[in-house]
Amino acid sequence: MKAEEKDHTSEDIAQDSVKEEQDQAVEDTTNLESDESSVEEPSAEAEVLEEEAAEEKEPTMDELLDRSRKEKEDLYQKVVRAAADFENFRKRSLREKEELRKYAISGLIEDLLPALDNLELGLMAADNHPEAKAVSDGFRMVAQQLTGILQNNGLECVDPAGEDFDPNFHESVGFQPSDEVPDHKVIQVVRKGYTLNGRILRAANVIVSSGPAASEEQEES
Domain end: 153, 177, 196, which one? Predict the structure, then answer.
């Protein structure tokens, strides 16, 4: 009886051992499958990286040449634009410098004009006194010299007697009927005007003709 029980116990132990081995084999198989799946995932990522690397392949020689030509053209256009901007700046600076040179003395000349007017009026008055001819001739030479200096600096006299009235250069101080001078023309220059390098410095004060005087019949009507 004891021998039978002993054999039964050994058989149970053997069965348990076989079962444990089977369980261990199943567990190993599961772990192996898990390991294989974990290995497959980075393999898929590697394939994606390889595809991207294949897409980003190195450019060919023709592509490099085209890229180089385009960069050269872009740089050339930038240089041309920079040169054009610099040339425009240079011309503008020269123009502004010339404008400054032309009109820098405008204030000084404008202050001298009343003295020049008085000198001319004095010479006109001296013409009525023959005994002062020698003195007046001397002052006339000084006036001519002063006028010449001013003219060399761009000053021009505006003396529009007999010309059409121009509001850009003339300032009317009155109207006067005239049978000899047509309507809207300057009869008399009260004070001469002056321009400096073409720009009006002082308008001429003038009296403008209003045409023939109206007859008595026209006034009565």
Answer: 153
The CB density around residue 54, as the number of other CB atoms within 10 Å, is: 8
Residue ranges making up the domain that contains 129? 83-153
Residues 6 or more apart whose Cβ sits within 8 Å of residue 60: none
pTM equals 0.57
Q: Supply 88's token pair.
A: 């425009």
Q: What band does 3 get if pLDDT is binned at 50, 70 and 90?
A: very low
> What six digits make up the tokens of 221?
């009507």
CA nearest to 156, candidates 207, 206, 119, 102: 102
The total domain count for the chain is 2
Please say if the pLDDT value at position 133 is more than 50.
Answer: yes
**Do the domain assignments include residue 123?**
yes
In a domain, 27, yes or no: no
The DSSP element (H or E) to which 199 belongs, if any, is strand 199-202
Run of H or E residues at 174 = strand 170-176
